[in-house]
Amino acid sequence: MNEPMTVIWARGQEYGAYVHSPASSIESCTASIDDYYRQDELKYHGTHNEQRGRVQDLNFFVDPESSECSDMVSLPPGCTGSACDYKVEWTLLDGTNDIRFRVTAKVEDGMWSGVGFSPNGQMIGSDAVLGWVDNDDGGAVQDFFLGDKGSNVLADTQQDVEDMVAEYTNGVLSLEFTKNGMTSDDKDVRLSGECVFLLMPDVGGPVNDGQPGFHTATPKSTQEKICFTPCEEEDPFGDPSASVSVYLTSWLTVMSALFCYFLKQ
């Protein structure tokens, strides 16, 4: 599944590093089997946060050593997989102002969808990339500027999208394209290093004579601005306090085990 998911992980406890809450019979020196935790046996992971946890938004298809930043927004909010009616994903391509987008929407055959970029959350004055699949002419993905309500939506003279893909399969329209986030086109909303609202036409609209018609339902706007800025680098050494905590826990457990040993002699 090529999308972010939540991964739950755990690992077994090792001798001298037991953590139970409340304390088990091992800590109270009443265990009938002192070496209960042995090598190559599947047993309780303990309660320390170094023994269990979860990782949010992990995509196994994304190179973790890549400096490219990726994110997504979906409708309904928080949906995953086929439960999403609409989803827009993007990746900031390393060393460039280019952004790779992928839009999927459950729309009727022949309808358009896409994504808009708005400085204020309104459609008027926003930039948009719309696409559709026509059974006669094939697929189309184009760059648009949304003027006032009384004017037609016309494709930009300067098309700042490339590597376009448009497909319609099993009721889902899929669009892919690369958009330059910093162009000289006054009809484009700047994205690189900026934060904007995303407009999401999850229902889309009809295509008339090869041009997108009026939307069937008003596109939804993100509640907050989305920032197309470089990702912050994480500390490769992690949280030093966590390592100290594990060390102290292990030391105390070893001392407790020795105490239990001499107590039983």
What's the overall geometry?
elongated
Please give the number of β-strands. 16
Structural class: mainly beta
The major beta sheet can be summarized as:
7 strands, antiparallel
- Number of helical elements: 1
Radius of gyration of CA atoms, rounded to a whole number: 27 Å
Give the integer mean of the pLDDT values.
79
Poorly predicted runs are 234-238
Indicate the proportion of strand residues: 35-45%
Task: Give the end-to-end Cα distance, rounded to a whole number of Å.
Answer: 56 Å
> In percent, how helical is the residue content?
under 10%
What string gives the helices and strands in order?
Answer: EEEEEEEEEEEEEEEEH
Spell out the blueprint of helices and strands:
Elements: E1 5-10, E2 52-58, E3 69-75, E4 86-92, E5 98-105, E6 113-118, E7 126-134, E8 138-146, E9 154-155, E10 161-169, E11 172-180, E12 195-200, E13 207-208, E14 211-212, E15 220-221, E16 226-227, H1 240-263
Antiparallel strand pairs: 1-2, 3-4, 4-5, 5-11, 6-7, 6-12, 7-8, 8-9, 10-11, 12-15, 12-16, 13-14
